[in-house]
């Protein structure tokens, strides 16, 4: 049975999370600390029964609702201004928040350390889609670990990181010149934010087939707005309301899609 709680962090932020709990009779289970993507928040993992499968595989799963999403601290207007203007201070605060959160679970969560050959135990942060941008804010610049958080202690617990389906902008990459990729945020047929997110939800949950013999050319991929089948087609309006927050995404995700790529290009340059 999973539980839910709120991590109260030293920087004043509070992050809601659901937790499958420690694995019974195990002293070397691995804790997956999962940062969700855009619009669909951490409760999606709960609804998808991820927690119920964790213990059988010696995993503990913790699904965090990132800032602005249900149960977690909202971004202040000044923070959103930093984001909209592409200021690196936004990423710096985000990286510090991730360090505080990992330390919170070390101090409060009774999680095992990484074992001697780093094959079990420890914490593995998982970034899903735009959640990778949250993770990379810290892991691209570990100097953001704040005073009061021991880097040596983090090294004893952070075993690895997982980047699950990351968008190119999380790493400051540009798409190839002449690309014809579909972008729901720039869809000229969408006149309102509601229409943009409806397009995004259908597109991101569609089932597209990879072309036979695909050699990595992005323009050879299926560029339809949505496929004949998408996951969200099977959800009721109540289920959508429980796992999706387009208002939070509009406030704090859409500006990332516009500004994060330039931020991370500068960030990557500063760290080399």
In words, what does this structure look like?
This is AB hydrolase-1 domain-containing protein. The chain has helices at 43-47, 50-54, 77-84, 88-108, 131-139, 151-157, 193-204, 237-243, 246-252, 254-271, and strands at residues 3-8, 14-19, 30-35, 59-64, 123-128, 162-164. The protein is α/β, with parallel strands linked by helices and 272 residues long. The N and C termini lie far apart (45 Å). It is built from 10 helices and 6 strands. It has a single domain, classed as Rossmann fold. The longest helix is centred in the middle third of the chain and has 21 residues, at 88-108.
Briefly say what this structure is.
It comes from Crucibulum laeve. The protein is of the alpha/beta class and 272 residues long. It has ten helices and six strands.
Please name the defining characteristics of this protein.
single chain, 272 residues, alpha/beta, Rossmann fold, six-stranded mixed β-sheet, 10 helices, 12% strand, AB_hydrolase_fold, AB hydrolase-1 domain-containing protein
Q: Which helices and strands, and how do they pair?
A:
Layout: E1 3-8, E2 14-19, E3 30-35, H1 43-47, H2 50-54, E4 59-64, H3 77-84, H4 88-108, E5 123-128, H5 131-139, H6 151-157, E6 162-164, H7 193-204, H8 237-243, H9 246-252, H10 254-271
Parallel strand pairs: 3-4, 3-5, 5-6
Antiparallel strand pairs: 1-2, 2-4
Helix pairs in contact: 3-4, 4-5
